[in-house]
Amino acid sequence: MSVEEKLRRHDDYRSRQDAMIVVAVCGNQIVGAQIGFALIAAPEIARLLPCTKKGDYYICEGFVAEPYRGQGIAHRLRIAMDRWMKDQGFLRRIVRISTQSNLAALRRHGFRVVVEQAIKNVPMRIAGNGIMRVPHACVLMSRDVAS
Question: How far apart are CA 6 and CA 10, in angstroms?
């Protein structure tokens, strides 16, 4: 899925007063983005947390196009989003991940696991046209905006 297609998937967030979309551009092409909104607007995520704060901000999507990965773009997007969040009075960034590589990368940037939840019977495409149901995990991580 292209970056533009991923952004179009989140068109409904653009009209939210507390939504923010930070993009990375190379030439005329969007090569990465982070999209977020106040956690109180995501009750399905907020209810998973043991404690929510008024200043929590949920990053619902973050991505960098494949050819541009490994160049620090995600880090710069995170810095830009943190700067905006701090200016708006948000105190903590919440992200949801589902891969071990993301977990390790976010830990290197000061995130800590807040909650881990197993999700059973997630449909996953396999070779051919088959679908296999596999156990899956969802991890919520947080980091103070000031750090």
Answer: 7
